[in-house]
Write a structure and sequence with these properties.
Order of helices and strands: EHEHHHEHEHEEEEEHEHEHEEEEHEHHHE
Distance between the termini: 38 Å
Helix content: 25-40%
Oligomer: single chain
Largest sheet: 8 strands, mixed
Number of domains: 1
Shape: globular
Strand content: 15-25%
Length: 404
């Protein structure tokens, strides 16, 4: 690497523009920085951005998702749909019920289960619908979140806890049932790329001037150059200076999942766009976002271990990877239309308007889940299947698969 081949850039707010971390949090972040610096020293002074993101989020005992700090809810850094209202899970339960009825048997498998709110509400609603799965498997990399999930289930659905099993890896081949993942893909480490006069460059992280620094250089990550070339064939040539992200880990994950599913459906809910919108010429700085105490910004290199780092999902790429892995695309739509397709309207009829406090709380939650300016259109649902013939109810109202 020479100085003429690379360039650097610091983006987003400085730490002084965000809430000040407590002293123990600062010490924790310093330990993770030390861990990252050790790896940088062992790897020639730099690492691809996706490796930095992996360490910042998942380094054992130090990463954002593995270190035990509160992340979800009003007291954390962000709030997800299952924490907003049980309505999200109650609607999803109806989709699960349809699949389980067609299969005649089956389990549920959730990966990245957060606080356990989704698992708890799904089980309670499926119990009410008289369609409980035999097992509810959870794959969770964070020991702290595993314990929170157990606590949530024990406090609200203790009589169903025996159906829940925590796994260290994906289920064994032959799984029959439904796989659910809410806001999983956005937390997968993403590679960064930029186009300049000389061609495609990859985003790296190094230590310079007593701080982590992002810079660009010739790609080294396997498959990155080929993926950018394929993208430009689909969406058009990127202008000089265009930069964005690629999730090169989703396809291997889907292949591994497909190898384990005998019959069933995978339902993924996340925020993102079809490829043509994701890589639109006007979205020329990418989608990378960070969340710290409910404040969003784009500086991934500050507060390592204390803030979430995400990239939006390219749902066109997810669909292609699913098809390549042997799945069938069963539907793609907005979160609003998915929830409505799964019976949100009928669930709302059970709310008593005379119970003003609870009714207003419910209506506010519905707005957050479905309004276009909230989660309704930013979040999408996509379903992939093996051995399922029936159309899925969640995509019956409006299927946008043609946009992929």
């Amino acid at each position: 690497m020479s100085s003429s081949q690379s360039s650097s850039r610091r983006v987003g707010p400085s730490p002084t523009e965000l809430p000040e971390p407590e002293s123990d949090a600062r010490e924790h972040s310093a330990r993770l920085i030390g861990f990252i610096r050790d790896e940088l020293a062992q790897s020639g002074g730099r690492m691809p951005f996706d490796r930095f993101m992996e360490l910042a989020l998942y380094a054992p005992g130090l990463g954002y998702y593995t270190a035990g700090a509160r992340k979800f809810g009003e007291a954390g850094d962000f709030i997800t749909a299952p924490e907003i209202s049980p309505l999200f899970a109650r609607c999803l339960a109806r989709q699960c019920k349809q699949v389980l009825e067609e299969l005649g048997e089956g389990d549920l498998f959730e990966t990245g289960a957060g606080t356990g709110a989704l698992a708890t509400d799904l089980l309670l609603e499926l119990e009410a619908l008289q369609k409980l799965p035999e097992h509810y498997f959870i794959l969770e990399v964070s020991p702290d979140l595993q314990q929170r999930q157990r606590d949530t289930l024990m406090s609200r659905a203790a009589h169903l806890i025996d159906r829940v099993q925590w796994l260290d890896a994906m289920p064994e081949p032959g799984f029959v049932g439904v796989v659910v993942a809410n806001e999983l893909l956005d937390a997968m480490p993403a590679s960064r790329f930029r186009v300049d006069e000389s061609g495609v460059q990859e985003g790296f992280v190094r230590w310079a001037d007593d701080a982590l620094e992002h810079y660009w250089d010739e790609p080294v990550t396997p498959g990155l150059m080929e993926a950018v070339t394929a993208l430009q064939e689909k969406v058009g040539k990127f202008a000089v200076g265009y930069e964005s992200e690629l999730n090169l880990r989703a396809a291997p994950w889907l292949r591994s999942l497909a190898q384990r599913i005998g019959r069933g459906v995978v339902v993924l809910v996340d925020y993102g766009y079809p490829g043509s919108e994701y890589y639109h010429p006007q979205r020329n700085m990418g989608t990378l976002m960070c969340y710290y105490r409910h404040r969003a910004h784009d500086n991934a290199l500050i507060l390592p271990g204390l803030q979430d780092i995400t990239a939006h999902v390219d749902f066109s790429a997810v669909a292609r990877a699913g098809l390549d892995a042997g799945f069938i695309l069963k539907g793609y739509t907005t979160q609003t239309h998915f929830l409505l397709g799964c019976g949100l309207d009928s669930l709302l009829t059970t709310s008593d308007p005379n119970d003003i406090k609870n009714h207003m709380t419910l209506m506010q939650a519905v707005k957050r889940l479905t309004m276009p300016t909230e989660m309704g259109e930013r979040f999408k649902a996509i379903a992939l299947s093996k051995g399922i013939a029936s159309p899925l109810i969640g995509f019956g109202l409006r299927d946008l698969s043609g946009r992929l």
